[in-house]
Amino acid sequence: MKIFDCPIIGRRPIGEFINAGGGIGVLAEDDPAKARRAMLFGDGTARTKREWWYHRPSQLWFVIERETASDTVLGVTLASGETR
Q1: Distance (Å, rounded) from C-alpha 82 to C-alpha 43?
Q2: Domain contains 83
Q3: Structural domain tally of the chain?
Q4: What is the pTM of this model?
Q5: What is the C-alpha separation between 33 and 69, in angstroms, rounded?
Q6: Dmax of the chain from CA atoms?
Q7: Could you tell me the pLDDT band of residue 79, with boundaries at 50, 70 and 90?
Q8: Residue 64 neighbours by CB distance under 10 Å
Q9: 48 located within any domain
Q10: What is the DSSP string of the chain?
Q11: CA separation for the pair 77, 63 (Å, rounded)
Q12: Full residue range of the structural domain in which residue 38 is found
């Protein structure tokens, strides 16, 4: 089982989280059709991504900055704005 070491709520099984996507920044796209495709389908480019994640048991929303090539978490921000 994959474990996510969240600096805010501690080590939790990844199954407790829902990845709600990387729409952050996509909505600022000038071309609405391109923004819609990016929001729905994303792409396979390895890069640093900012994504919305939801933790079901605690009902907390997070913005997680993640390097997709290595699946390394670079930063976690609680939806209230608190950074850890």
Answers
A1: 29
A2: no
A3: 1
A4: 0.69
A5: 26
A6: 40
A7: confident
A8: 19
A9: yes
A10: --EEEETTTEEEEGGGEEEEE--TTGGG-SSHHHHHHHHHH-----SEEEEEEEETTTTEEEEEEEETTTTEEEEEEETTS-B-
A11: 5
A12: 3-78
Residues β-bridged to residue 11? 5
Q: What is the CATH number of the domain that holds 72?
A: 3.30.2270.10
Residue 6, CA distances (Å) to 19, 36, 75 in order: 14, 30, 9
Assigned domain for 84 exists:
no
Could you tell me the two tokens for 29?
A: 């796209």
65 falls within a domain: yes
Per-residue pLDDT of 22-57, as tens digits, reads 665 565 667 777 766 666 566 667 888 888 899 999
Using 50, 70 and 90 to split pLDDT, how confident is the model at 62? very high
Q: Regarding predicted confidence, which is higher, 44 or 76?
A: 76
